[in-house]
Amino acid sequence: MMASSYNAKEEDGHHSGASSHGGAGAVKSKKPDNTAFKQQRLPAWQPILTAGTVLPAFFVIGLIFIPIGIGLFVSSNNIKEFEIDYTGVGESSPCHSCAKNFSWNSTTPCLCSVDFTLEQPFESNVFMYYGLSNFYQNHRRYVKSRDDSQLNGDRSALTSPSKECEPYRTSEGLPIAPCGAIANSLFNDTLELYHIDANGTSNSIPLVKKGIAWWTDKHVKFRNPGGNGNLTVAFQGTNKPVNWRRPVYELDPSDSENNGFINEDFIVWMRTAALPTFRKLYRIIQKKPSSTPTLPSGKYVLNITYNYPVLSFDGRKRMILSTISWMGGKNPFLGIAYITVGSICFFLGVVLLIIHHKYDTRNNSADIPN
Amino acid sequence: MTVLKDLPEKWFPVVLPLQRRKQKGLNGAKSQKKRTEEERRVRANDREYNEKFQYASNCIMTSKYNIVTFLPVNLFEQFQEVANTYFLFLLILQLIPQISSLSWFTTIVPLALVLSITAVKDATDDYFRHKSDNQVNNRQSQVLIRGSLQNEKWMNVRVGDIIKLENNQFVAADLLLLSSSEPHGLCYIETAELDGETNMKVRQSVSVTSELGDQNNLASFDGEVVCEPPNNKLDRFCGTLYWRDKKYNLTNQNMLLRGCVLRNTEACYGLVIFAGPDTKLMQNSGRTKFKRTSIDRLMNTLVLWIFGFLVCMGVILAVGNAVWEREVGSLFQSYLPWDPPVDNFLFSAFLSFWSYVIILNTVVPISLYVSVEVIRLGHSYFINWDQQMFCSQCNTAAEARTTTLNEELGQVEYIFSDKTGTLTQNIMSFNKCSINGQTYGEATDPLAPQPTRLDFTPFNPLADQDFCFYDDTLLESVKVGDSHTHEFFRLLSLCHTVMSEEKSEGELVYKAQSPDEGALVTAARNFGFVFRSRTPGTITTTEMGRPVTYILLAILDFNNIRKRMSVIVRNPEGRIRLYCKGADTVLLERLHPCNQELMNITSDHLNEYAADGLRTLALAYRDVSEDEWETWSESHRCADKATNCRDDRLAAAYEEIEQDMMLLGATAIEDKLQEGVPETIAVLSLANIKIWVLTGDKQETAVNIGYSCKMLTDDMTEVFIISGHTVQSVRQELRRARDRMIELSRSRDGEKEEGMEGWAEAGFMGNGFREGQDGDSAAAAAGGGKQLQCPPPPPPPPSNNLMDNISGEFALVINGHSLAHALEADMETEFVSTACACKAVICCRVTPLQKAQVVELIKKHKKAVTLAIGDGANDVSMIKSAHIGVGISGQEGIQAVLASDYSFAQFRFLQRLLLVHGRWSYLRMCRFLCYFFYKNFAFTMVHFWFGFFCGFSAQTVYDQYFITLYNIVYTSLPVLAMGIFDQDVPDKRSLEYPKLYEPGQLNLLFNKREFFICIAQGIYTSVVLFFVPFAVLSDATQSTGVPLADYQTFAVTTATALVIVVSVQIALDTGFWTVINHVFVWGSLGSYFTIMFALHSQTLFRIFPNQFHFVGSAQSTLLQPVVWLTIALATAICIVPVLAFRFLKVDLKPQLSDTVRYTQLVRQKKRKPIGRSVGGAWRGASSVSEGRLGARGGSRRSGYAFAHQEGFGELITSGKNMRLSSLALATFASRHSSSWIDTLRRKKHTHTHTPPSASGECSPAPSCISGSVPPLSNSSSVLGGSQDTPIEEETGTPPAQNAQCDLTSSTQTQAASEAAAPQASAQAVTLTAGRTHVGDSPGGWAATLGTVQEALFGRKSRAAASNSPGPPSVAKDTSQIV
């Protein structure tokens, strides 16, 4: 389909004629250069939408998409996922009283526990998420309300946070660390999972809290001021965010390495969600070395330290357990979409083929009407 | 937006005076003074006196800026572009933190880029204007200051100065001629620059000043001139010279106008009356108008609509914001309190509106305007670089002088062309002749491609080397000594008003007043009858090497009415003979009856010549006896001395002796067309472009050229001539033409539909219709002379719907004075509807201003794109007022080129400019715009959808850097490459299939509908781009379990999908993938990923942690298979429907270009040589006589010294001008032929109708001519409204006498009018008189058309009754009867 580049002999002939005309080169010929570019004769590929190219393309797209779709669909179906809402909206729900009686000032945490049953065992690593609904982490004012310099351990930003953090920039005359609305609204419920085995004893399931954040976030984006030395000293002269119970350097009392800005729960929270309903990775339940499933089927209890009020804006809180495949978590949409699009392409190919054969006018009249 | 764009002009008077005052003290005050100037007083040699009036100096300024004013003025102008102001406004909005949804640089970077690119372009443009101004202003002229001549720059010449001009110099300002080196204060000027007429004109100074002579006397000259204020009337000047207490009247005859060139005059002195901007040249050049293309205007409208759309979206989202803030946001305040100034949801909504205006502003792409400019610039360069528009003879390449109009070249519907120098080379060549019934000059062997040129030198040492003739039989005949041939050339060597100059022996230079005459005298010279010199009383020639001196007894000079000239000479033997040459129509009537047979043969020859587009002249002589001469010269003297009606009496005297002449033969002169003109015109008209010729030349010349360049053909149904002198008569003629068209086309349709009965009936109806009109016309025409008895009938409502579907080919010829009436407000629409129904329109005798008015008229009424092409200064106003002005950079100076938008050396390049460059430009621009709007909507509307999920908070979907770079980096180059390089079909094909041009004229490729389709596609894409990632990512997680639904991943996924989708889309849109397209498309994708990875890199984040939030996003996102699956899915969903739709369109309803493309592909696959390449023929391998037969109809067009002026004969006999200086004769270029085009035309016609070829039978009936057709006064009408009332002055022949003749001639004509109408009309054209109101004979022909209507219809119905098969046969029948 390469277009022929036109023979330029003719023009060349002209050229010599012109230069001889110009009086033995005394007058410089203004004749434009005879280059393919200037004469718009660059060799070019000129694709045309013909039946020979378009129809096969449709069939090929169809034939590629459908198997991919089936593959996706199957692997998505193999993923096990369990979701439980513990907001406590209904009268009967266990966390109702905690949700109702929430007050910012109370010092004693409200505890509640939710029972649930896994019908099927969860193999391999199980990921535990908390999900929030109707929570606008993608609101413009929310998204910008942070100071990345501060979070990156910049000392000057620590003491004088960016204006973007308003109104969570200072409190009681001291700069807030970490400043801004995002940090201020850090999700601070504590979830614990217990397995009730056959004889009724509840076994605590070990929840790993490391490795839940992006590597770049953990190692590049977030850094404590002055390294990971004495955080109490490093954060001196700053105030904790208004909603927080503990300062940033005491976020994880159990692991001193997981404090300050590099606390992984904090990092996860700071990675704002794109949509008002979202889930964030909370903990990982490591696969057991033995062949027993990570979470065998049976009864479980979720213990919640209910600190995070969402009812006021009609929000919801969920706990999700999920396994993972090569393409991530459960995602039925992708598979179905692929199958649909593939089928449509195939179908279109057939329809176009019929139309082409039935109504094609070109084969009959190869001549060009002029 | 359109309104605002005009502002600079209105504002300039405010800005410019300041600027001017700095430069020239005088100029500033002038602008105020100008309005009040009612008369001009100029005193010679008195600068102090003249300075009181503060007249404009001779400095011309066309530039806009100087160094100081450039920046403010240019910025001021640029911010009048609404888009620029809008972006400035956005920039200001972004500085408000509560509103700012984007960082400031997302707007300022593109804005600065756009402004600076435009500024650079403007600066370059203005620089060149400065340069040309300087060049003109710094020309040297000699000014008489304090008695001595001093060299001064043009710009320093003042009103009241006396300047000296030398031969071949340009006149620096409008001068009053004071004295000249030639006798009687005469001087010769060439006014080509001014009015396009290339013949020389004589100017004479007032006698008192011409006596002053040289500079010494002139230095003390202190006359005062009082005259009219500056105006643009080229042919009028009125003033008075006061000197030494005497008054002398001044007329245009005393003036030398700026732009003229002094010729054949050694030197002359003139007094500057008007200078610089006040000169008639500058006054005529019209105002510079900012030209914009229709695409520009459409674009502006669309941008306004988009603004509206933007506001709508803003409002919707603001309302959403209000609702959201009330329902959700207010409750969500524990986590996200309102910003301090916001205290309620309404205020928040208000702010959100502005925030959305900012982030959605990319629907109005700022880079749109600058990209369009860049593309146009590219196209302009391609025009400049085109070798096929390079003229190697004059070493001139085509030049796009304006870079903003290219795509409009693809939409032209009307072309207004100048004649002289544009269509023709203004070179006449003696081509053929008929001597005593024998025709010479026909190529002997039609197969021989290049007949040998005759070499005259061995035979005749005095021969002109440049003369070309190919038929050696004529030379043989001369050598043999055939007496007729000798007499023929003797006549040519004697009967003329040419001056000769012989610098050295044998080196003759002729100075002819019109190129026709020069050609004839040169022909005689080469055939051995050399005109050597003349004195007032003698003519010396060298006849066959023998010097002969004739005594010149009288010159019976040419004028428009006589259409002939004669000389009466006494040969050395003492015999007196009258030699006459003239238009055949006039001359053939005055022959001796014994010439009948020869006349028939010669007539046939004349017809042949005329059919070839040659200008013909008939030659005759008469022996005058001594007695006869005595009596006649006495009566002539009386007439000459007569004080009243001198002209009439002279004419009568001439008429008296020019009788009973013996026919010698006829000559045919070719008004050499420029190379390829007929081909070009044919191709252009196949492309549905209408061509109007506007010329200052006379009607006959113009019509002749119309025929020779195939604008008018004998196939035409009818040619209407409008040459009325009064409003009523013009209106009448127009109306008659319209009625006739309707009638003819109705009858044609009727013929088609109903066959014979319908045809006859339609004819009958037409007849009845017209009879009513006839009464009117008589009254109206009479109204010209007397007062009207009844008020003129109100103009009928222009029957536009009727006029729109006129079938058949008509042509209109309109005279300048009629045009003046036709252009009046109340007749405009009538004129337009009549003229536009015609395939060809020729306006002759038009002034420069009228040219512009005609163009304006079409612009106003037709909403069509117009193109004006011309080469002289008289075309400047037309060039400026047309949408596109094209200047031919020919011999006639550079005024036209300077005013033009495009310039090249030859008319034929026009087809390449329009059909190739214009078409491509239009196509590219349309594709570019479609894609551009598409990609911006696809890009921006994602924010709109996201608004519904982020609380209407004006959060952007993408990274801010992506928003900044999307339009200027990621997607700009591929679409620019497409806009610059795309081709749907190669250039050869677009010349081969002129129909490919039509989509542009109909504006099919980019209009409001296409725009909405693009927008819809863009919105669809944005929906897919938002909701597919939304659906996939909201639940998806990485393989490490980390959710993918975070904002940054979502942003990267959507942006990547967007870039890929628009890249695939541009790949689909690009039809011509050159290396550059590949580099740009792949390069853009590459640059997207490179830049993204760079911006998301740790290095940048470490330096500016607050600026680069997206650290690591690219990496972690693009490693996820799910993300890629999402992108692939989104791409497929976006592209598949488009692909299917386009395939269906091409497959089921292919455009011509698709078909051509497809055929091209098939051919390439078959590796078959292209069979029907007309391209080769285009270049004119020229088959000499192909198709000529078809054109040979009954039409005959005579031409006699068309550019001739009366008055020269007198000058010769008076002996005033006998001292002549140098003169260069035009060279006779080689002949070329062009008649293949007839075949092409016929090819086209066969679709609409079959032209009857009854031409053979239809040659004009000599019997009628011999009966001396009486002149009818209604000179203009072809249609012959008034059959029996000669309306104006009579010329003596009683109407009754012509009755029989009328019947015969018009039966024949009328027969033709239905079936073989072209012939009839063409005859009518030929025969129709010039502009004179005194009727002359041809009018009779036309007028009789009406006379014999009854006869015709009688005949016709008879024919119908007798079951004759159809109209053509009717024609045959009737002509046989004749």
Number of strands of chain A: 10
What general form of chain A does the structure show?
extended
pLDDT below 50 for ≥5 consecutive residues: which ranges of chain A?
Answer: 1-26, 363-367
Q: Provide the succession of SSEs of chain A.
A: HHEHEEHHHEEHEEHHHEEEH
Largest sheet of chain B: 9 strands, mixed
Overall mean pLDDT of chain A? 83
Protein name (chain A): Cell cycle control protein
Organism (chain A): Sparus aurata
Membrane topology (chain A): Multi-pass membrane protein
Transmembrane segments (chain A): 48-74, 333-355
Give the arrangement of secondary structure elements:
The complex is a heterodimer of chains A (370) and B (1378).
Chain A: H1 9-21, H2 51-78, E1 81-85, H3 96-100, E2 110-118, E3 126-133, H4 140-143, H5 148-151, H6 155-159, E4 170-171, E5 174-175, H7 181-184, E6 190-196, E7 202-204, H8 215-221, H9 231-234, H10 264-270, E8 278-285, E9 298-306, E10 316-322, H11 332-359
Antiparallel strand pairs in A: 1-10, 2-9, 3-8, 3-10, 4-5, 6-7, 6-9
Helix pairs in contact in A: 2-11
Chain B: H1 2-5, H2 7-23, H3 25-33, E1 40-43, H4 47-51, H5 67-78, H6 82-94, H7 105-137, E2 140-145, E3 148-153, E4 162-166, E5 174-180, E6 186-190, H8 192-195, E7 200-204, H9 207-210, H10 215-219, E8 224-227, E9 239-243, E10 246-250, E11 255-256, E12 261-263, E13 267-274, H11 280-284, H12 294-329, H13 345-359, H14 367-385, E14 399-400, E15 412-417, E16 424-435, E17 438-440, H15 472-480, H16 483-494, E18 499-502, E19 508-511, H17 515-526, E20 529-534, E21 538-543, E22 546-556, E23 564-570, E24 576-582, H18 584-587, H19 596-611, E25 615-624, H20 626-641, H21 646-657, E26 662-673, H22 677-686, E27 690-694, H23 699-708, E28 718-722, H24 727-754, H25 756-785, H26 800-804, E29 810-815, H27 816-822, H28 828-836, E30 840-844, H29 848-862, E31 865-870, H30 876-881, E32 884-888, H31 895-899, E33 902-904, H32 909-947, H33 960-970, H34 972-981, H35 987-992, H36 998-1001, H37 1008-1033, H38 1047-1069, H39 1075-1095, H40 1098-1103, H41 1113-1118, H42 1121-1148, H43 1152-1166, H44 1175-1178, H45 1188-1191, H46 1208-1214, H47 1236-1248, ...
Parallel strand pairs in B: 15-27, 15-31, 27-30, 28-29, 29-30, 31-32, 32-33
Antiparallel strand pairs in B: 1-8, 2-3, 2-4, 4-13, 5-11, 5-13, 6-7, 6-12, 8-9, 9-10, 14-33, 16-17, 16-26, 18-19, 20-21, 21-22, 22-23, 23-24, 24-25, 25-26
Helix pairs in contact in B: 2-3, 5-7, 6-7, 7-14, 7-33, 12-13, 14-32, 14-34, 16-17, 20-21, 22-32, 22-47, 24-25, 24-28, 25-52, 32-34, 32-37, 32-38, 33-39, 34-39, 37-38, 37-42, 38-39, 38-42, 49-50, 49-51, 49-53, 50-51
